[in-house]
Amino acid sequence: MKIEILYPEICNLYGDLANIRYLKECLPDAEVIRTSLQSRPRFTEEAVDLVYMGTTTENGQQLALEQLRFLREPIFERIEAGGNFLVTGNAMELFGERIEEDGVEVLRGLGLFPGVARRSSINRFNSLFLGTFDPSAGSSDAPSAKAGGGEETIRVVGFKSQFGHMYGTDGDHGLDDLALFVPERGPGMNRYAAGEGIRIKNFMATYVIGPLLILNPPFTKWFIENRLGVSIPHLAYEDAAMDSYNTRVAEYSDPDTGLYYWGGTTERWT
Amino acid sequence: MKRLKFLLALWCAKLSVIALKVTGHRGTDFPGRVAVKICPDFLHQARLPSRILGVTGTNGKTTVCNLLIGMLRADGKKILDNNQGSNTITGLTTAVLRDMSLGGRSRSDVAVLEIDERSSRVVFPLMAPDFLLINNLTRDSIMRNGHPEYISRVLTNAMPEKTKLILNGDDLIASNVAPGNPRVYYGIESMPGDVKECINLVNDLQICPRCHSILEYTSRRYHHIGRAFCPECGFHSPRLHYTGRDVNEKEMTFDIDYRPHPVQDDAPVQRQADPGNAAGAEAPAGDGWTHRFRILNESVFNVYNVLAAVSYLSELGYAPERIDQLLQKTEIVKSRFQVEKMGGYSVIKQMSKDRNALGSSRAFDYVSGLPGDKELILMMNNLSDAAVWSENTCWLYDCDFEFLNKDNIRNIIVTGPRAKDYYLRLKMAGIDDDRISFVHDEIDAPGALRLYEGESIYVLYGTDSIDLADQVVARVKEVISQRTKDAPAAERGTAQ
Questions:
Q1: How many domains does one find in chain B?
Q2: Is the ipTM of this complex over 0.90?
Q3: Based on the domain organization, do B290 and B399 belong to the same domain?
Q4: Nearest-by-Cβ selection for A161 from B392, B396, B423
Q5: Cys-Cys with B137: which of A116, A202, B174, B283 at CB 3.0–4.6 Å?
Q6: Using CB atoms, which residue from B121, B149, B390 is nearest to A57?
Q7: How many whole angstroms separate alpha carbon A160 and alpha carbon B223?
């Protein structure tokens, strides 16, 4: 199994790379490929089981896009063919139409989905996230399909900390149909959206940052089994991870737990 | 009218100071809030001391400030400082107004102010430091500070053009702040523990700021702190004006070379004239000097802090011999690092900044490198977060818990609201179950100590649990006292 990290020298904020360290512990035989800005991504030349990209700085977004722009076609082909991509934090914004800062377009994205990221140069938006993942949605044969299936939904917890939000090019709800997760508590793609993240075939992207796979053993198990094709998935430290997960789900479900953090104060949100 | 508004703000805020004293509150920035509410440009209106010395950066700014305050006080200076309050605009305003007479005049000779790096954008337009030291820019609170590149941008955009910068030249992020400002650099020559490849999880400067090629480090202390160059475009770490070298852990000393004009190909170095010289000492010699100074503890972090403080005083015009004398009279503030011996054990209370992966990594690296058996109580739990929401624990995965995977760290007690997250993180760091204890409440954590003979017990606490850490340390001492009474030494610390 091959897992490729794109541009780890710049896409490495907020503990995101721990996701791959954890996957490596769950899949000891996996080869982890670290592709720098100077190298051509391996997935464009050979079969790679998962392409991962993590959160970066605003300057890092520009540097990454300068490389990805030349790879737009192979990336789209790969996604169309059912290739697995996991993209976290603001790396997701690179795949939308454009990124604006304080109302001015600063970067043109790859245009995989009709989204515009609007960020502030000063304000930071912090929140917790509790949502659900529907395994039966968005199969590789039906891009963005939301047809309900037999599998139970999986609750997902995590953190968000970002300078901006993603909107549909046609409005606040424009990306709801492509959602990776459905928010239960905490914000979606923006303050009003009913969805969080993007799922197009097996391209999965989310604003949830940090140790997503470590914090969410049920989701990770599903991911390893269904996306990476391991029939009997083994999770590293599963008991400890489940204990932490259950505690966090209970905390985030508690209406007394604040979900937003605003520069030192929190605002309750239900 | 403006002056009246200022005085009204001052008097109201001073009344609130009295009210807070009467009601037994301390260390609050409420008076500053009052003043800013009434007079938003209070700091601009204020008649400040003739010399404003700022310190900012991610880690160590409180220690550097305390060293500066200690040394300048030892020199007989009256100091305005904010070390009892916050380092944001309301905390700084509180410090300023506390120092003022009712007529609005400062009573101090010099202001030594710790300035929150993110707050610089609102502070600097109102109050321009004459000197600003940036000791490092590394990852900090994800929620407030995002990432160091963002903080560097905030500082650069806000920097008053006349402020002279004293920069850690071993930190390529800090040393590139506000490139148009006059500056000097300090740093440490290669040390025995240096590496070339990064052994930390976080390395925030891997690519050349100019051409974006991969940087090569000729020496690296930790994370991105070290000396680097770009093999493609020739970019390199700045030449140092103040170079620390020959750190002697036995003698607890190190040498500093001062060279006023190091070879510098990035920007011309201007040594500012020092009119006024509020500090009142002689200007440094034009040819530089070499002098031996004491270090306050052997951690590299604190060597940097002392080097920073010495460089600062030298820039103020103090001669090295005088700095040395003043440093001899100064200690690291005890709330951050405290050692007590008891019944053959050492009990160490050490701050390990929560939400700050680099700060905790440095603490872990330091503790793990010390000889002898150890037990640790990890209680960096962001209690203020736990009170209203649930902590964002991303930082645990940027932090090098792997340093704690050492045979002589025989028991790590995880405790408090995020104990389960710590447990999982320690497992991921490869630490076996038999070396981890789980205790729900911090105050009960000392009960899980095993007390290996002659060991050191570290209580690692966060920024908002100073009082709780004191209680835990007291409880540790009770446990030692009780167990040493109950059982002979040979029976302690043998069962797992």
A1: 2
A2: yes
A3: no
A4: B392
A5: B174
A6: B149
A7: 25
